[in-house]
Amino acid sequence: MVEVVQAFDRGRIAELPTDDAPALEAKLAAARARFQDRAGWLQPHERMAVLHRLAGLVETRRETFAMLIAREGGKPYSDALVETDRAIDGIRNAADLLRSRGGVEIPMGLTPASENRRAWTIKEPIGVVAAISAFNHPLNLIVHQVAPAIATGCPVIVKPAMATPLCCVELVKLVHDAGMPEGWVQTLLPESRDLSESFVTDARVAFLSFIGSAAVGWRLRSILAPGTRCALEHGGVAPVIVDRSADLDAIIEPIAKGGYYHAGQVCVSVQRIYVHAEIKQAFVDRFAARVGQLRVGDPTRADTEVGPLITPKESERVESWIAEAVAGGARRIGGERFSTTTLQPAILVEPPKDAKVSTHEIFGPVTCVYGYDEIDEAIGAANSLSVAFQASIFTRELDVALDAAERLDASAVMVNDHSAFRTDWMPFAGRRESGYGVGGIPYTAREMTAEKMIVFKR
């Protein structure tokens, strides 16, 4: 059994049964049987109908899901409502994909050898999908893995984070209530880590969708069965550049939101802030004033802005990273302990360049501020790590914006917005150690698709 507790006060929410090896085998066999029975594949209109009914069912439980997100994951209730709304829209987005999904014609007759032929491609489901998700968006991340699988016609077995399984279990129940036959969408709560590895490496798995740490993701990729494709979404150490021309009145709020949303437990959360030396002190003063006003506490309260970290161990880790930076010369603003699981938001001014807070993903309510004199210096520092995901620059100079947008090593660059901006239909992918493949609902659906060419000779 797995005990699920509230992130904030560790109070018990529920206890769920785990899956043993025979249960995993039964689920893999059921998924594989569904895929092999081509005559039993659901038609596009049937899959669309399931997705639309699912969106409606989640919508009727909007507040229930939001409270569940707040309780098991610690995300403030107001942000959990936004996550639920995004999940509902994402399910509908997956259904809409089927209206435009199709192959292309391949030109023939371009050489004598290709005369009297017509060729085209069709899109088919890639096969059984193994999905492993993360705790920080316990509903929407599951939607990003399950909804594209339904849309493309792939059987999917989804393993949620063991700290936050309830949203996943409830969503999959609703998938079945929406009319999805058994065997197409299943959950997995493995009783051991070894069983998780057996799940991922099984030869019946055609595609692995993984959201989590780089260390785990790259290791799993290295042991996949031959032929298994994958997409990995890891984290970053997101850089934000504040140009000397930036409007301080306009940038404080978005940077604070990007840095402390969900207590910084976001893979593209604002972490490294490079501010031009001419405005650095003014920025720090205004930023510290705003961050000091953030309401910290119980995430189930409607007015809470910053909730807990997922476990007490994570709070201890973040505290130790802050202490290391301070010992190395950083000036600390805030960061006091609020409770066993919760820290006050912290700002570290000029931490050492080699400190953990400067080189590793914090995944906590901490941002770091560094001064710079020339934009080249800031871009160089932003690009200096082995991770690269989303980045941003705040400026009122068009040439600075365009130059930085091209030179920043990131999969997406936000201009005059924080690095954590995301919509669920845009491409979302880490570069280098930050990931492999492309996320975002339409792009995940593409990753779960196998293209087949048909050549017809007259």
From TrEMBL:
GO MF term (any one): lactaldehyde dehydrogenase (NAD+) activity
Similarity comment text for this entry: Belongs to the aldehyde dehydrogenase family.
Protein name: Aldehyde dehydrogenase
Listed InterPro entries: Ald_DH/histidinol_DH, Ald_DH_C, Ald_DH_N, Aldehyde_DH_dom, ALDH-related_metabolic_enz
CDD domains xref list: ALDH_RL0313 (cd07148)
Pfam families for the chain: Aldedh (PF00171)
Keywords annotated in UniProt: Oxidoreductase
Residues of the Aldehyde dehydrogenase domain: 2-453
Source species taxonomy: Bacteria, Pseudomonadati, Pseudomonadota, Alphaproteobacteria, Rhodospirillales
